[in-house]
Amino acid sequence: MALAPLSAPAQEWPAKQPIKIIVPFTPGSATDITARTVFEQVGKQISQTFVVENRGGAGTSLGMTMAAKAEPDGYTLLVNSASHVVVASTYPNLPFSVADDLAAITQLASIPFVIAANPRHKSVQDMIATGKRHPFLYRYTVGFDGEGRVQALDAMLAADAGCTLDLTPGVIGRALSHTDNAYFIPHFRAVGYACRTHKQSNTAFRGFGGPQGVVVMEDAIERIAHQLGKDADDIRALNFYTLGQETPYGQPVEENHLPRVWQEVRQLGEIDRRRAEIAAFNRQSPVLKRGLGVFPLKFGISFNIAHMNQAGALVHVYNDGSILVNHGGTEMGQGLFIKVAQVVAEVFKVDIDRIRPSATSTAEVPNTSPTAASTGSDLNGWAAFLAADTIRQRMVAYAAEHFGVSPADIEFADSTVRIARPGSNQVLSFGELAKLCYLGRVSLSATGHYRTPKIHWDGTAMKGRPFFYYAFAAAAAEVAIDTLTGECRVLRADLVEDCGLSLNPAIDLGQIEGAFVQGQGWFTCEELWWDKQGRLRTVGPSTYKIPGSRDVPPVFNVKMLENAPAKEATIFRSKAVGEPPLMLATAVWTALKDAIAAAGDGKTAVRLDAPATPERILAAIANVKA
Fold this sequence. Notes:
The protein is an alpha/beta fold. It contains 17 helices and 20 strands.
């Protein structure tokens, strides 16, 4: 077991003097062994010897308190697992919190330790202990012709996995399958490495390797443009996929909105006019420099592991017309529950107020897939649709039999059900039909199960069709940098996102805006810094900087692609919107490089590592001026 480093002591420890720990556990028991392991690890970190003694027969807290006070050395600490508190301590100022620092270990043995008088803040401990998005190191060689068409790419992507493998294979897999991004590359080789380091075990985060993958070709495109003396945006457009071309992993591009989103973002962002304005500004401004970056995106939607692309749902219709829906998706503020409720409301043609989503539980819907890979609405929406449609068909069949009409004569609309036989104007409320079906002993409960079609994947050969469809998008970002301090600001962002036929444009708009700003933080200010001993030092808001309200671009335009239903049979022809917009912040990174280039003489291509902190921006400026 390894523990996160502890903070500095609140006061000096007695030199070379052991501290006695009294615990009420049976000698040799699992809890006793865990307690000894815990204090052995703590002692190593703070160079202090702990002696653990068992007083299993001491009985009550009061009895153990008396036993502790009778200890002669004066440095005794009593841990009582029953009351979850420190009940006696003759050395109360321990500089650590076992309750925080050893949460993972104590949970394994179900031992509630509470020891310190000055515990660390839980958010700091969380930052120290939990995994982060994988840092990547890249090396690549790109081949291209005189026009700028990419002919070959040979890339190496090394992921910092941390101390364990965790989800690193999946993250690398998605990074490799998005290294091509929006560009057709006839000859392609990309190799990923999972590197074990002394850091926390890194894990997946929004994008799941996609953000790390798409930056390779963006850097390559800009270096090609610099080499040829051409506009990088022209090189980008020249290399876009066209319909029918295959990705390096063998999936044909059967739907392609790249040219459209590219054209629309250039119009929305007034790219040509603003480039001229920015160039004029940079010529007369020796300190502040501005830059403009444009970024296209092709992002695959589905889990790379085929069996995870499934979902279940449970729908109940009650005899008063109210409807309950439960599914395998987790609501985390992204609006999934309301989207699935909208799907069910659409099936029954009722107001959404009738729908009550219930908390996700495997007691109701088993074997749920993670709410990840931007598939929450796709999978759970379809599962809920199938469950609701099963009930609707039962209701239609019973109504047709009851009223002596054809099932085709039963129409659901506006929270009512119309019996549309010739000469009839009979209309029931949805609740009245539900009551009628209940009295007719019709089951008004059903489950639905959906599995994504067409997908298959050979993880060994890295070939197949891992994605049901692609979401396309494009972004333009304008930034300003201070060449004396390295500080930067995002002045404007223009985004065009392919949402298919959006299930809920208001929710999707919020997802797009939030994801972009989140990605902006990843590219610019969210720096993780470890010292030489492997201790994370950016552990709170004073050192780990997330974007705030003032970091949101003052001019922020978002447009969803219109009249662009998904080609594949997604739920109501919508498309995922969870992860793709985060990668649109790549435009901020390219804009920063454009601004840095303006500080130099144009002879040196810009290298800018992310996050683009002031120190890294200054280093990049120094490099282009050298």
